[in-house]
Amino acid sequence: MGIMVRDENNQNEIPSIGRLFLRNLFIIIWPVEDIVLATSDQKKRPGDNVAKTVVVKNPNKSSKPLRILALIGVGIAFFMFVFFMAGNAMKNSDAYKVATKEIGQNKDILNETGGIKGCGMMPTGNVSISNGQGQAILEIKVLGNTKDLNVSVYLEKKPNGQ
Questions:
Q1: Which contiguous run of DSSP H or E holds residue 139?
Q2: Is 8 in a helix, a strand, or coil?
């Protein structure tokens, strides 16, 4: 991005990993950091003050297309991570487990698919549970021996019930 973090007293020296870690710990309180940064005369984050670091322009900054590609790559990786984490959370829900158990016992689905090999990688829908009751609407791809099916499932949980 055309910037680099350096030691406050010697701008030719890269701070130790421990100091860089300490500097970035303060990102947890980023709203406070933004306010301090905007109002500070030194234009330094609290993390920079504690770690005794400064941010300076990098005279050897990389080419613009390379930086754009890096940003696009980070963006794609972030959205893939979120997408797969949401799918994994859905697959670990009790509603998904109940749904796949019921699908596996449904004679109509077993006949149409020629037997079930498994379920698709990413179920869609939502699961909402509050105070022991809730609803789940799921779309699950069922992988069959002869035919794959998309099965829609609606589940309702009553208080103190299944």
A1: strand 133-144
A2: coil
Q: Find all residues with CB under 8 Å of 53, minimum gap 6, and list them.
A: 5, 6, 7, 8, 15, 19, 20, 23, 47
Centre a 10 Å sphere on the Cβ of residue 31 and count the other Cβ atoms it contains: 7
Adjacent-strand bridge partners of 151: 140
Would you kindly state where each structural domain of the chain is located, as residue ranges? 1-61, 93-157
The CA angle 140-133-88, to the nearest 5 degrees, is: 35
- Classify 97 as helix, strand or coil: helix
Alpha helices in the chain (DSSP H): 17-25, 30-39, 46-51, 64-91, 94-105, 107-113
Tens digit of each residue's pLDDT (9 = 90 or more) over 83-123: 888 778 888 888 888 999 999 999 999 999 999 998 888 88
Q: Would you say 140 and 127 are in contact if contact means Cβ atoms under 8 Å apart? A: no
Structure tokens at 51: 């770690």
